[in-house]
Amino acid sequence: MAAIRFKKPSFKISEPLRTYLVRTGRETDVPITYTDLVHHTSSITLHDKSGKDTLWETLIYNPADLQYIHDCLRKIYAQLKVGGEVAMIEHLYIDRVDYCLYANTHPLRVRIVNRLNDLFDYFYIKKADASRIYGMELEHLLSPNKINYLVKGNTLIEEHIAGIPGDTFVKRYLLRNDYNPLRIAKEFVKFNERSLVQLLGDMRGDNFVVEIIPDFDDLYFRLRAIDFDQQCYEGSVKIYLPQYFKENNPIINLGFKTMSPVLEHQYQREERARMLTRVKAAQGQMDELLTAMEQDELSTPEHTAQLRKELAALYGDDAFLKCNSMGALVRTSLEMLEKHPVRQRHSINVLTEEYESAR
User: Fold this and answer.
1) What's the mean pLDDT in 165-170?
2) Residues 6 or more apart from 311 whose CB is under 8 A from it?
3) What global pTM score does this model have?
4) Predicted confidence (pLDDT) at residue 349 exceeds the cutoff of 90
5) N or C, fewer C-beta in 10 Å, the chain?
6) Cα-flanking dihedrals φ and ψ of residue 60, to 5°?
7) What CATH architecture applies to the domain 164-358?
8) Are 142 and 280 contacting, i.e. CB atoms less than 8 angstroms apart?
9) Confidence (pLDDT) at 31
């Protein structure tokens, strides 16, 4: 089973990455920062509908500052959603600001409500971390999912990604009989492949969401990453394969029951082909991103050495052994999409045997 032993450190945004963010419109001016918002007078524990502690706290600000803070947050939401046109969101108000006690970046979650129909949305304000930004950019360029975020200095603002948390989906939806279970197994194979190619780690149940999509007479699914903190940091290749996390076992077991190795092979190849198409479509932007990434220190030398060795063994390709940074490993991983449309069959079998022996 995959395991992360230590908390990942946060990495500063380098000048090459900052240049990329400016050029792509991600870097912008905002009226209030993360540091401003964490200054509060008190807080109260936030409970869910069943009265369980969510591990979030709702922050209470000085009444003299509250209107200013809320106005700034509404302006940020306008920048995130409607190009900064505040007149378009006059009917929205800030309901609360929550602070997370356990996540790496200690995010702030802002709940904003439409007073015309009581519908609400969330967005997040965090301390900027280069790893997370690289992870979101790779997801935006390589996956079928688009990521909306802004950066200002050391402040990161992210759009909420809607969906059913993976662990909740397993508990409440996985065993329903109103859909074809092969569809969720198929999507997990594709999600597993995207995570590996992008070197996005720690895709356990609470770090991805499941979208349920009705279509004619059946339900379709899409798995989406929502946590990008573990982008190319760990040394073990298993961290980048969601199949190795025990929290995902119920979905994996469903795959064993419904999917043959031939189908798994097909869906893996389909996903790699689609990712290759996206790489070629965004070739200039991708190259600029990877060039910045190759110059950044995003992990330890020990983790980098371990991962290049394990990736070389997984693909049966020594090209990884020439990589001296995590950014170089990501670039080489993307090159494998064309060089190895499907990872070697012996690699698939080895991974399956290792997984089954660990169960």
Assistant:
1) 94
2) 237, 320, 329, 332, 333
3) 0.92
4) no
5) C
6) -115, 125
7) Orthogonal Bundle (1.10)
8) no
9) 95
Asked if the model's pLDDT at residue 4 lies above 80, the reply is: no
pLDDT category, 210, cuts 50, 70, 90? Answer: very high
Please state the φ and ψ torsions of residue 264, each to the nearest 5 degrees: -60, -45
CA distance 182 to 190: 12
pLDDT for 73-114, tens place per residue?
A: 999 999 999 988 888 889 999 999 999 987 777 899 999 999
Do 324 and 299 form a contact (C-beta atoms < 8 A)? Answer: no
The per-residue pLDDT for 344 is 62
Which backbone phi and psi does 104 adopt, to 5 degrees? -55, -45
Residues 300, 70: Cα–Cα separation, whole Å: 40
Does position 18 have pLDDT exceeding 60, yes or no?
yes
Residues 6+ apart with CB under 8 A from 66: none
Report d(CA 35, CA 291) in Å as an integer: 30
Directed axis angle between helix 261-281 and helix 345-358, to 10°? 120
- Give me 19's structure tokens: 């240049």
């220190």: which residue's tokens? 297
Cα gap 197→29, rounded to integer Å: 33
pLDDT at 50: 86
Domain boundaries, the chain: 15-159, 164-358
Q: Are 77 and 95 in contact (CB under 8 A)?
A: no
| Structural contact between residues 309 and 244, judged by C-beta atoms closer than 8 angstroms | no
3-state SS record for the chain:
CCCCCCCCCCCCCCHHHHHHHHHCCCECCCCCCHHHHCCCCEEEEEECCCCCEEEEEEEECCHHHHHHHHHHHHHHHHHHHHCCCHHHHCCEEEEEEEEECCCCCCCEEEEEEECCCCCEEEEEEEECCHHHHHHHHHHHHHCCCCCCEEEECCEEEEECCCCEEHHHHHHHCCCCCCCCHHHHHHHHHHHHHHHHHHCECCCCHHHEEEEEEEECCEEEEEEEECCCCCECCCCCHHHHCHHHCHHHHHHHHHHHHHCCHHHHHHHHHHHHHHHHHHHHHCHHHHHHHHHHHHHCCCCCHHHHHHHHHHHHHHHCCHHHHHCCCHHHHHHHHHHHHHHCCCCCHHHHHHHHHHHHHHC
